[in-house]
Amino acid sequence: MDSLTQIVLGAAVGEVALGKKVGNKAMLYGAIAGTIPDLDVYIGKLFDTVTALEVHRGFTHSIVFALIFGGLFGWLISLYEKQASCWQWSKLMFLGFLTHALLDVHTTWGTQLFWPFDVRLAFKSIFVIDPLYTLPFMIFLIMAMLKPKGSDKRRKYNALGLIVSSSYLVVTLVIKLGAYLAFTHALDAQRIAYIDIDTKPTAFNTMLWSANVDTEDAYYIGYYSFLDTQPITFYRYPKNHELLESYKDDRSVNRLIAITQGWYTVSKVEETLFINDLRFGLLSVTPGFQQFAFSYKLLDVGGSVQIEEVPKSREDAQRLFKALWQRIQGN
Question: Alpha-carbon distance 144 to 151, whole Å?
Fold first, then answer.
């Protein structure tokens, strides 16, 4: 999830862990704990594109990290914050790290919660920025923050924020099931034989969903809004995996393919090849749109393959917002 959401969650968890004893300091340190795991983005900048992708939401989003660094940060804080014990500060930091990772499990990218095991959990039920999750949660947190330390109202408001936000996460799983059933019904009705299907919400909402559909030689992408009145239309995207034949033994290319979990297409512009990660959709929901949100260019540099992410622009975001708003309202 985005940084603001993780700060709010961390602060609320910090309040539960130690708010009665240290007041707003518990929220402050909880907010810090909610931020620290995402520093892996900056660590990734020290490496090449593929390694940065592997690092993101890896070790820092694991139970192992929460245990080790929860204790380390708890000990460091206890050296100068004497209102609570080392164990209590460690518990706060551990819960902040762990809940950060658990929330990210619900997104499309997911987390390696059980690192070092190479298993990435991704429920794909909520977009990384969702105002319906964050804003009510933040309002309850602010209301709690303004009440005296240890007061019943402070505890009540903080608990309500956690209950409402957690309940919304559960609701998104139910909504995802509804979208999945709509997609599978449409595929059956249109007699599209498929191998696998992957559903996820589009940006900033849980009203409009997209599906990647795996068939023998192509992927189909469709959109479904709960306000739709017409059948779902699926758009075909050839896999073109054969274009990577000359790269079949290249380690970087194979690592990138592994990151996509097999959901990728290959496109060719002039003589340059691009690997497109389907999991995060396109930069528009306009029918037949071709530019994917995450696309990687393969470059030949001194006889070796260099992989670069295709940058996104402000115009891309503006186009996406406009198209989303129109499509959410139904087909």
Answer: 9
